[in-house]
């Protein structure tokens, strides 16, 4: 049977053809639909990478050889969260043979294992529930991050910033049994509320974030600097007394929240330094048991990794380089408040963190820098960044996640 030679067949509606193209369909989607598609696609790619790596994983203390996805996604610190959900926190600190505080559960905060445990009580296996919670929190973080970037960037730049967030080198953590994805959600919410100057809503967000992952102290510094900037610029940007009091109060609250967990560890164990001693146990294999002296860990790490004089020179160069980065045109596009967070969190890490294989994961809260990388619109630049990020995902998983014998490179 021949097809009728109709006018509609000979001359299709150009608007209908145009609307059927993938590019137009993409543009017709609401912003949240595009973010969800980006997040889903990125997780499919990362899952494929993780499955290939899991298949090559030899037997370890945690799993048999070639474990399934959910077992492979619950290595390393994920086991500490599972332990906390099952047994809570010790009231007596464990000691090694030399009498030093050993690694223990006080290094990990309770919100994430508490949420996962709610799902296990209704029959969802821990390994599955931990991944699902991280996936959901990661999606929430991506959605809020888009709203945050839309405050400082053009629509296409904001969306590409989300792409970079979703394919970042450590983004597999968004689908592992770690608290990072949940912490990214609270951080993105806190930054959005700060940029929008909805200060009162910061209180519940900070309260939950402070018991999910460390970072509230850095945010307290951000709020303090925000108060100073608004005070200095009050002639061009009015800073009412009410706002002055609210910002100052929330900054103090953030500081108190950031110190609450060490105080709780002290109260539960009777040891004033229970939390810091626990954290120091993780760096003891590198430099032995030493006191925590702020602003020295990066130099201690430099000495261990590089010796002298590079062990001193390298941290100084990194500090100067990061300061120059904050003053660069692309980063300046992010606005004052986000740069204050970047500076505050970097200072927090420099003050207390000992750089080793976990450094890449600990740098992840600097994710607003993805907005700076999203400023150029070149297809080569953007495509290249995605490919490099995916390659670095593989590198991070090989270095920090995959277990090879007596592995000393935790993520």
TrEMBL record:
Pathway: Glycolipid biosynthesis; glycosylphosphatidylinositol-anchor biosynthesis
UniProt topology in membrane: Multi-pass membrane protein
Places the protein is found: Endoplasmic reticulum membrane
Annotated InterPro entries: PIG-V/Gpi18
Protein keywords: Endoplasmic reticulum, Glycosyltransferase, GPI-anchor biosynthesis, Membrane, Transferase, Transmembrane, Transmembrane helix
Chief site of localization: endoplasmic reticulum
Regions crossing the membrane: 31-54, 128-146, 158-179, 199-225, 245-268, 312-331, 338-354, 383-403
The keyword Membrane is assigned to this record: yes
Protein name: Mannosyltransferase PIG-V
Source organism: Agromyces tropicus
């Amino acid at each position: 049977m021949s097809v009728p030679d109709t006018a509609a067949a000979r001359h299709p509606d150009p608007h209908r053809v145009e609307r059927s193209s993938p590019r137009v369909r993409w543009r017709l989607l609401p912003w949240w639909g595009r973010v969800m598609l980006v997040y889903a696609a990125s997780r499919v790619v990362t899952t494929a990478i993780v499955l290939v790596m899991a298949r090559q994983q030899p037997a370890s203390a945690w799993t048999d050889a070639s474990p399934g996805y959910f077992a492979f996604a619950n290595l390393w610190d994920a086991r500490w969260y599972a332990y906390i959900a099952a047994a809570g926190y010790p009231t007596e600190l464990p000691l090694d043979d030399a009498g030093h505080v050993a690694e223990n559960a006080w290094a990990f905060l309770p919100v994430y294992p508490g949420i996962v445990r709610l799902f296990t009580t209704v029959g969802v296996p821990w390994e599955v529930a931990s991944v699902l919670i991280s996936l959901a929190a990661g999606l929430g973080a991506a959605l809020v991050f888009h709203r945050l970037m839309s405050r400082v960037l053009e629509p296409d730049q904001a969306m590409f910033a989300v792409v970079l967030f979703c394919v970042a080198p450590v983004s597999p953590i968004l689908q592992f049994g770690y608290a990072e994805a949940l912490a990214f959600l609270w951080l993105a919410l806190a930054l959005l509320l700060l940029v929008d100057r909805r200060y009162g809503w910061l209180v519940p967000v900070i309260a939950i974030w402070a018991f999910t992952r460390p970072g509230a102290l850095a945010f307290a510094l951000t709020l303090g600097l925000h108060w100073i900037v608004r005070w200095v610029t009050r002639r061009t940007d009015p800073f009412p007394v009410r706002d002055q009091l609210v910002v100052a109060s929330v900054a103090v609250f953030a500081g108190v929240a950031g110190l609450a967990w060490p105080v709780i560890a002290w109260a539960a164990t009777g040891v004033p330094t229970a939390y810091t001693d626990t954290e120091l146990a993780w760096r003891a294999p590198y430099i032995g048991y030493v006191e925590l002296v702020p602003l020295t860990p990066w130099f201690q790490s430099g000495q261990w990794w590089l010796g002298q004089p590079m062990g001193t020179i390298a941290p100084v160069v990194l500090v100067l380089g990061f300061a120059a980065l904050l003053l660069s045109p692309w980063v300046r596009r992010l606005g004052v408040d986000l740069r204050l967070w970047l500076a505050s969190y970097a200072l927090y890490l420099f003050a207390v963190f000992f750089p080793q294989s976990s450094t890449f994961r600990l740098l992840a809260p600097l994710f607003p820098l993805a907005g700076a990388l999203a400023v150029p619109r070149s297809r080569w630049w953007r495509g290249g960044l995605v490919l490099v990020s995916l390659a670095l995902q593989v590198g991070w998983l090989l270095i920090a996640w995959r277990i090879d014998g007596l592995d000393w490179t935790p993520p």
